């Protein structure tokens, strides 16, 4: 089946870490992605991870992949108000992306 | 940094009319995609396009829809005889075709909001 699931909302305080979780169903997916969508804007690629990796770090972003459990997470360190947005995880199946429903991150000062 | 650009940002059309959504992919990219997001729902794949032909399409992409690369820079999505349920945000994306496409991420435009009245 093709299904990617995320929790809908996450609220954190400025300066805290945020962890956004995602589960997917297709074990044959080769790449998994995180996109960010700010209000009125498109989908901005944040980072991605190949399925033979279990961690990738890029500045404040850390992606963890548990392939056995088909679980992907995005950790944002030192979350800022500018990080408030909707975050989508997506798995790549052949040429197309299959998206989760997005997690709305709210950062309170 | 190169961007995918989409026009118009908002299109309002009467039901039954034809609409063309336009996209300019990143200039050295060779793989092009359309996705849509109905309000409150997930982003859904519509179609992928490479070498002047459709490489994959979803169940949503029926005979009402068509895509075209009319020149070296534009990529269009045409919807014939629009229906109310076609109202959605339509996203264009492109990816680098110079390398193995399976590991090249897709870059998205800001979308066209299509409203069918």
How would you spell out the order of helices and strands of chain A?
A: EEEEEEEEEEE
Give the rounded overall mean pLDDT of chain B: 91
Question: Structural class, from secondary structure content of chain B?
Answer: mainly beta
Element pattern of chain B in H and E:
EEEEEEEEEEE
Helix content of chain B: under 10%
| Rg measurement of chain B, Å | 14 Å
Largest sheet of chain B: 7 strands, mixed
Q: Which term fits the overall shape of chain A?
A: globular
Instruction: Tell me the overall shape of chain B.
Output: globular
Number of strands of chain A: 11
Multimeric state: heterodimer
* Major sheet size, sense and barrel closure of chain A: 6 strands, mixed
- Which spans of chain A of ≥5 residues are poorly predicted at pLDDT below 50? none
Distance between the termini of chain A: 40 Å
Number of strands of chain B: 11
How much strand of chain A?
over 45%
Explained architecture:
The complex is a heterodimer of chains A (109) and B (117). Chain A has 109 residues and is an all-beta fold. In chain A, 0% of the residues lie in helices and 59% in strands. Chain A is built from no helices and eleven strands. In chain A, strands 2, 4, 5, 9, 10 and 11 form a six-stranded mixed β-sheet that branches. In chain A, strand 9 and strand 10 (96-99) form a beta hairpin. The N and C termini of chain A lie far apart (40 Å). The relative contact order of chain A is 0.34. Chain B is an all-beta fold. In chain B, 0% of the residues lie in helices and 51% in strands. Chain B has strands spanning 5-7, 10-13, 19-24, 29-37, 43-50, 53-57, 65-68, 75-79, 88-96, 107-108, 112-116. In chain B, strands 2, 4, 5, 6, 9, 10 and 11 form a seven-stranded mixed β-sheet that branches. In chain B, strands 1-3-8-7 form a four-stranded antiparallel β-sheet, with no helix packed on it. The model of chain B has no long low-confidence stretch (mean pLDDT 91). The A-B interface holds A 30-31, 33, 35, 40-45, 48, 50, 88, 90, 92, 94-102 and B 4, 6, 31, 33, 35, 41-45, 48, 55-56, 58, 91, 93, 101-103, 105-111.
């Amino acid at each position: 089946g093709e299904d990617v699931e995320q929790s809908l909302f996450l609220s954190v305080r400025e300066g805290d870490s945020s962890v956004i979780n995602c589960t997917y169903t297709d074990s044959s997916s080769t790449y998994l992605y995180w996109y960010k969508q700010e209000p009125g804007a498109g989908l901005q690629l944040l980072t991605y991870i190949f399925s033979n990796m279990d961690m990738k770090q890029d500045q404040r972003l850390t992606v963890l992949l548990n392939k056995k459990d088909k679980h992907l997470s995005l950790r944002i360190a030192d979350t800022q108000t500018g990080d408030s947005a909707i975050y989508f995880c997506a798995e790549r199946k052949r040429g197309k992306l299959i998206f989760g429903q997005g997690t709305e991150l709210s950062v309170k000062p | 940094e190169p961007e995918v650009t989409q026009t118009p940002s908002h299109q309002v059309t009467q039901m039954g009319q034809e609409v063309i959504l336009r996209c300019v992919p990143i200039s050295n990219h060779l793989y092009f995609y359309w996705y849509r997001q109905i309000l409150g729902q997930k982003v859904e794949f519509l179609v992928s396009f490479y070498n002047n032909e459709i490489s994959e399409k979803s169940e949503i992409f029926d005979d009402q829809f068509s895509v075209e690369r009319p020149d070296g820079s534009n990529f269009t999505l045409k919807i014939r005889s629009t229906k109310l349920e076609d109202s959605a945000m339509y996203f264009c994306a492109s990816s680098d075709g110079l390398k193995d496409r399976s590991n090249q991420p897709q870059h998205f435009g800001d979308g066209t909001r299509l409203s069918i009245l």
